[in-house]
Amino acid sequence: MSSSSEATSSYICARHLEEWVKGSGVSEQITRLNVKTLEDNEEIAQHLGWKKYKHTAGWWCSGINPRNGLPIVLLFHL
Length: 78
What we know:
alpha+beta
């Protein structure tokens, strides 16, 4: 995996992929399945269930908590 800031796909940018895989030790396959780069404020607001969002872009993570089977969602601002 390169440390380039170019997007590796339309799904997750290289910087976020590297943060998860190299920085946090999550497998690349799991990261690509569950993490998405969000840059559009309207899309971020939709994910959060808000009318407006005026903060910085970041990544969105979704998945299932293996301990209780409930959905997990996380948003990180750049």
